[in-house]
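Good morning C.,

I know you're traveling, so I'll keep this short. The sequence:
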Amino acid sequence: MSTPAIAAERKRFGGLLAPSERDPAPVTEPAVQRGLRRETVLVLGVSLGSSAVYAVLSIIEKLTRPVPLSQQTTAMNQSATPGRPWLDLAYQLAGIVLPLVAVALALYLLNHIHRPAVDVRAGHFVGLDRREPVRDLLRGLGLAAVIGIPGLGFYFLAKAIGINTQVSAANLEAVWWSAPVLVLAAIENALLEEVIMVGYLFTRWRQTGWSWPLVIGLSAVIRGSYHLYQGFGGFAGNIVMGLVLGLVFVRTRRVMPLVVCHSILDIVAFVGYSVLRARGVSL
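The tokens, ready to paste straight into the viewer:
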């Protein structure tokens, strides 16, 4: 972004959303900007973008059933081979590890193609490192409380007014490895979503000259879209979550607190649901 453009954006947005010295090195050539935007489409296409397509198809399928949306159940974390626990474990671990290839790809591209900062590795630039473990943990815990408590209330409200399915968050068989696998699945979700949707996309889109409001807003909408399989409550709730986490990243330039927050939310949802279901409690 050129100096006049930076000055104009500072004047327009100011404060938190103003450009700073921590912004990625801008790319000014229009052809290269277009190339980087195409790159983001390709990365999304092999990761969360394809999830968004399937989520849109899923909500269409649910809406065209004769049963109201609120009376339908969305099952997550299901056993792949019921009755064969060791093979099921292999399936679960493959489902956790393979999506992380997209995370490695995103970081690889940031490291090797128009690196956002000279002599700074991508993980360090986006804050995916262990430089501030205590601060990252505290920020993550705080964000989890701020997002999780109202989010649970919004889920019940969305279900009550008929715009969301009942989400069955954990459906693995009762075997010794089910809880550790649910924890690993939660961490995988957090890394995949926060590194790609925030660390990678925010960096690339800023390099191409997009304003912070556009970057944060578009990322949040995409985040909501791949949760449409849950219903419109999941869509709206995750847009809000994306906006909050996006603003936190702009302020801190660290993706680790977001990963911590997202991991905690999913661990509580997955393991908590599993424990409650085992005790006969229905959500």
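Safe travels,
E.
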